Amino acid sequence: MRNAFRSGMIFTAIGQYSNVLIQLLINVVLSRLIPVEEFGVVANVQVFLVFFQMFVTAGLGPAIIQNKEMKEEDYGIVFNYTVLFAFLLAVGFGLFGHFVAIIYNNSIYKSLFWFMSIIVFSEGMNVVPTAILNKELRFRTLNLRLLFCNLFGAIFGIASAFAGFGVYALILSAAIPAIATLFANFAVVKIKYTKSLDPQPFKVLWSFAKNQLGFTILNYFSRNSDNLLIGRFLGPVPLANYQKSYQMITMPNTVFLGIISPVLQPVLSHHQDDVKLIRETFLKIVHVLGLIAFPLTIFMVMNAEEIILFLFGSRWYAAVVPFSILAFSIWAQMLTSATGSIFMARNHSKTLLKTGMISTFLILSLTLVGINFSKITYVAAFVCAAYILNFFTSYWILMTKVLEGKLSDVLKQLISPVCISVVLAAALFLFDHLITIDTNYFVLLVIKGILWLILLVSCLLITGEVKKIKSVF
Q1: What InterPro entries does the entry give (predicted)?
Q2: Is 381 exposed, middle or buried (0-12, 13-18, 19+ CB in 10 A)?
Q3: How far apart are CA 65 and CA 135, in angstroms?
Q4: Which residue, among 43, 13, 44, 49, has the nearest Cα to 30 in the 3D structure?
Q5: pTM, whole model, 2 decimals?
Q6: Domain for residue 203, yes or no?
Q7: Whether residues 164 and 251 fall in one domain
Q8: Domain housing 98
């Protein structure tokens, strides 16, 4: 198991890190070429796109991975259903754009929704081949595909922005990778195609997938309620600034959880009845994640202004304060995001769904409170509080109901990461107040980043944490 986990993480790291760098490059370039208002429009479309993508995948990917009794012809039958669903939902997404255009009183939504319906269709057709690659632990193929398809999309997106395509450059940067992935999947995954629509294979998967789909829908609303409400009540400019802030705090999840979560379920699902093994493995992972999440939270909070203004320019100054507030929840989001794979690996999709209900209630309730103040800084503060509360509730349910442990087992793993982070925070605070450097944001970030990294590595060596990290990987 350890070898499979290590191999999966190496190749997933290649795919995810390259993806983050490519997406950051696209974001940095297009932020300087496309007006803030147009970013706000696309932000609205992307919120609805994610919603339709949930339905087009229908939780089938994790269900295919978890089910060890599927035959070759079953994959072909399920693929037929995904093509049918993908087509219907793609058409539905395009038509939905007319409704959104009326709500926001902007006709551009009509064409944008039809263009992005291509993504819905491609994502639906990618479900089965991608799940097969994960189930067979073919992480190398998965992530090299991700690298080249995203690079292809970045080239098209940036080139079209310089060519004056405006808001459509953002659409192309997202649509091209989805289409390229579809062709790549057909090349590397051999599905036994059939004309059959026998419902039995789909029914077997649906018993697991329906709970996963329910959780995904709830997670969607909890994660996007702030964007939807800000866009509706505060307008496109506050939405653009808030989303820019939120987008930055999700990057650590993508960078670090993106290399662990995709590997956890495929590997641990082979040991779903060995509770002790999964619990002990997961607690080690939580400890390592804590050593990353807490120090990273400190760095992002204390360098919010430099990060936003260096990456996106002075026009995005209004995103600095929301980002600094939201960044305080990075540790909670990173640690909570790791729980979903464990619920699924233990085949507890019903418990995962119940956890999603509680999370949605917490996040949506506090978001509504923040919206009432009519400022994105208040929204950011209440959303931050919601994510921290969600961490405690999610881990209590996971440990007591799924892993036969206690919440205190998790909290003990976080003592050392918190102590190290306090040292880092004190050092950065003293640097800011005792040392004055007259330079640009890039140089300042490099200097503070080097100081942060030296102190972090020193703390890890002094406390013996490096050995614990090596023992996991």
Answers
A1: Poly_Biosynth_Transport
A2: buried
A3: 5
A4: 43
A5: 0.75
A6: no
A7: no
A8: 1-197
